[in-house]
Design goal:
By secondary structure, the protein is of the alpha/beta class. The protein has four domains: 148 residues, Malic enzyme, N-terminal domain (Rossmann fold, 3-Layer(aba) Sandwich), CATH 3.40.50.10380; 156 residues, 3-Layer(aba) Sandwich (Rossmann fold), CATH 3.40.50.720; 180 residues, Rossmann fold (3-Layer(aba) Sandwich), CATH 3.40.50; 148 residues, Rossmann fold, CATH 3.40.50. The protein is built from 30 helices and 21 strands. A hairpin with a 2-residue loop joins strand 6 and strand 7. Helix 5 packs across helix 13, helix 14 packs antiparallel against helix 16 and helix 19 packs across helix 30. The chain binds NADPH dihydro-nicotinamide-adenine-dinucleotide phosphate, pyruvic acid and magnesium ion. The site of magnesium ion has 4 residues, from helix 8.
Length: 759
């Protein structure tokens, strides 16, 4: 989705909904009891204080310092928005904090300083050194940023990096190396035109010079035009890069015959004509944010031989420092580097450039709705969501820190370090991304049985913006449109079907006939059939059955059995399936957890439990996750012989026999599903071995339903469901109170299922 499609209102709502802003502080230790609090604070807290007082290095053992980065700005060069002030920069700094966390599990305090004087800025940051493991300077304008960073580097013993300078230089160098390789041009010979002569541009130019570019091949422009020796206003950082006064005094003139354009200035300053006038196989990095110097599609429409990149995520080749800072700091923090030096920066650039040439894992293709990303003009640099970045870049940086002698805590076991890095990302935050991207790659027609509802309409808009489905809305047109108008929801792109409208009379008749045929030997009369199909749940299922739609999202309701009845009667169960079941996916800190049957079967028999487990395991596999199944009860491996214990034990036996390769064990208490040490100590024979379970099968509906509801409410765990298992085609019933996000998630699941339904 392009930024232009993101409504201003959406962005504002995103930031203001719930707790305003995007980040919060969370305790990492138990704080449940009086004893916990005595340890967390007085008197217990005095002990680590005294240890640190004796040996200051112990601050890394007893506090969060080692994983805490300060993202610090004064708001003088915020993206390409300019000097908008400290407070106005806060959303960007919180955003950086979010990226640090999700891509590299680094915690961030964002600090916006009311301070434009470099010396005061430096003094302030120096005083913060005890707090942080590293400092990321952000969006500070040039030339002040250079002085600030230089002085801080001299005075601090923790790694510091001005991201707009070095992050950008590292990422764009990696992209440049690869682009030049593709067009077979020699960096020592190519002619560069640079727009912008600020923090980012100057640093990029310096790194390109280190890579072999020649200063005489650069023509640089800032707001006041050509950066030439004739100018008297150049700052000391820019002066050495100034060219002799040439005839090419305008950007348009300089672009004629240029090989590389680098934009780190402001949006929309490059014209089609300028692109057309460049040398053969031009490389254009239009990196101003949020609006590039020229839009991606405009540039590629001018010529076919271009390699084009922007700083944005919505086009190929996102050259943005997000590819660097999370992983560079991860590596630097993990070896407790005293600084981020040239060797570490070059190692990061090289690692990034190399990674782009390796085969791209499926998960990355899926995440970007691509079929086959591979090294080439539209993929010169890895994608930010590539899970290999954390291991590849962070390890390269850590190693370079060690080799260059700045690592206070060198890595001893690289294999263990790699594992630890991979674990930081977990699969938990990947699951929904994975489903969303899969849905995007093959969007389906989803009919919303109850569209006269604000949340549903908001979800419909989001679903269209994300491109995950083609919505069909059932309901009275006037009502749907009135809700949409009142809340400024643009429904363009959604099909509205008003069952009362005369144009649908024939369809209703046809559905009545078909339904009658299906149900006439189950006591339904023709009159009743006509009446039933006028109900939106029945009509929606008829649309699915007659291939007018690919999936159904039925109304928000508390009466689940009533809501699925039409689907059971019209769509029916998959061949061989006797019972349908409902599953919830909980996105817990321990990773994704699947609960079954939470929704339908009150008191399943042994055979039902076996079937529910099979259906659940297959669905878990659809999420690309290997099911690790625990059949739960109140007893462990025969320790009690109550009805439920025996049932779950017997079901386990049957399943283990039927699926000898599955990881499945039971019956056990819920805590043993997770506490692998306790399980291994006491029940070493248990099949789950050294694994925690991710798929929990409950003995009855009460237990399952209570368990997931307790977790989602009391532990505030995000969930998706109920995911209906066992139907021939995807029909999902929304729970009363489902949020917009939950509806969107269910749509994505229905779309993915529809993609796998053989009709
Ligand atoms: N994709 C990415 O990863 C990154 C992108 N950027 C983007 O780069 C841009 C600059 O950031 P940064 O270097 O931190 O900011 P600075 O404020 O330090 O530099 C901005 C530069 O752009 C110049 N400029 C302003 N208007 C024009 C114009 N019309 N024509 C030519 N040059 C102009 C300024 O000139 P003067 O000196 O005369 O004022 C200045 O040299 C921003 O858009 C930012 O979003 C930055 C970092 C990373
Ligand atoms: C990406 C970034 O840091 C910027 O545009 O300023
Ligand atoms: Mg920035």
């Amino acid at each position: 989705m392009s930024v232009s499609n993101i409504l201003k209102q959406d962005a504002l709502e995103y930031h203001s909904s719930g707790k305003p802003g995007k980040i919060e502080v969370k305790p990492t230790k138990s704080t449940a009891t009086q004893r916990d609090l005595s340890l967390a604070y007085s008197p217990g807290v005095a002990e680590p204080c005294l240890e640190i007082a004796e040996n200051v290095e112990k601050v890394y053992d007893y506090t969060a310092k080692g994983n805490l980065v300060g993202v610090i700005s004064n708001g003088t060069a915020v993206l390409g928005l300019g000097n908008i002030g400290a407070e106005a920069s806060k959303p960007v700094m919180e955003g950086k904090g979010v990226l640090f966390k999700i891509f590299a599990d680094i915690d961030v305090f964002d600090l916006e300083l009311n301070c434009t004087d470099p010396d005061s800025f430096v003094e302030t940051v120096v005083r913060l050194e005890p707090t942080f493991g590293g400092i990321n300077l952000e969006d500070i304008k040039s030339p002040e940023c250079f002085e600030i960073e230089e002085k801080l580097k001299q005075r601090l013993k923790i790694p510091i990096m001005h991201d707009d300078q070095h992050g950008t230089a590292i990422i764009s160098s990696a992209a440049l190396i690869n682009a030049l390789e593709l067009v077979k041009k020699d960096i020592t010979k190519v002619k560069f035109v640079i727009s912008g002569a600020g923090a980012a541009a100057i640093s990029c130019i310096k790194l390109y010079l280190q890579l072999g570019a020649k200063i005489e091949n650069f023509t640089i422009f800032d707001k006041d035009g050509l950066v030439s020796e004739a100018r008297t206003d150049l700052n000391p950082y820019l002066k050495p890069l100034a060219c002799v006064a040439t005839k090419k005094s305008t950007l348009a003139e300089a672009m004629v015959g240029a090989d590389v354009f680098l934009g780190l200035s402001v949006g929309n300053i490059l014209s089609k004509e300028m692109i057309a006038s460049m040398a053969a196989h031009p490389i254009v990095f239009a990196m101003a944010n949020p609006t590039p110097e020229i839009a991606y599609d405009v540039a590629v429409s001018v010529r076919e031989d271009i390699i084009m990149a922007t700083g944005r995520s919505d086009y190929p080749n996102q050259v943005n420092n997000v590819l660097g800072f999370p992983f560079i700091f991860r590596g630097a923090l993990d070896v407790r580097a005293r600084e981020i030096n040239e060797a570490m920066k070059l190692a990061a650039a090289k690692a990034l450039a190399e990674l782009a040439k390796k085969p791209v894992p499926d998960i990355v293709n899926l995440a970007y709705n691509e079929k086959n990303l591979s090294f080439g003009p539209e993929y010169i640099i890895p994608k930010p969501m590539d899970p290999r970045l954390i291991t590849t870049v962070s390890m390269a940086v850590a190693k370079a820190a060690m080799d260059s002698g700045v690592a206070a805590a060198p890595i001893k076991n690289w294999e263990a370090y790699e594992l630890q890095l991979a674990k930081r990302l977990g699969l938990d935050n990947q699951v929904m991304k994975f489903i969303m991207k899969r849905a995007k790659s093959n969007p389906k027609r989803i009919v919303f049985a109850d569209a006269e509802n604000l949340k549903v309409l908001k979800a419909v808009r989001e679903v269209m913006d994300e491109g995950i489905a083609k919505p069909i809305l059932l309901g009275r047109r006037a009502n749907i449109e009135a809700i949409a108008d009142e809340h400024h929801i643009d429904l363009t792109g959604a099909q509205i079907m008003d069952l009362r409208a005369p144009e649908n009379a024939d369809l209703l008749k046809k559905f009545g006939e078909l339904y009658y045929e299906k149900r006439k030997r189950r006591g339904t009369t023709r009159w009743e059939a006509d009446k039933e199909v006028r109900k939106s749940n029945y009509f929606a299922s008829m649309m699915l059955e007659t291939k007018m739609a690919d999936g159904v999202i039925s109304g928000l309701t508390k009466n689940y059995p009533d809501a699925i009845r039409p689907a059971l009667q019209i769509i029916g169960k998959k061949p061989g399936v006797k019972k349908v079941a409902g599953m919830y996916l909980l996105l817990s800190d321990k990773g994704p957890l699947f609960f079954s049957d939470t929704t339908i079967n009150f008191d399943p028999s042994v055979e039902d439990i076996v079937e529910i487990t099979e259906l659940t395991a297959k669905s878990v596999e659809q999420f690309n996750i290997k099911p690790r199944i625990a059949l739960l009860s109140y007893s462990n491996f025969g320790s009690a012989d109550g009805e439920d214990s025996v049932k779950m034990r017997e079901a386990t036996r049957i399943l283990q026999e039927k699926f000898p390769n599955w990881l499945i064990e039971g019956e056990m208490q819920a805590h043993l599903a997770f506490d692998k040490e306790l399980r291994q100590q006491n029940y070493p024979f248990a099949q789950l071995g050294n694994e925690t379970a991710n798929t929990l099968i409950f003995p009855n509906l009460s237990a399952a339903n209570i368990a997931y509801n307790l977790l989602k409410e009391a532990a505030n765990i995000e969930y998706i469901g109920p995911i209906l298992l066992g139907l021939k085609k995807p029909v999902h019933v929304l729970q009363l109170g489902a949020s917009v996000r939950e509806i969107v998630n269910m749509v994505a699941i229905a779309v993915v299922e529809a993609g796998e339904t053989v009709s």
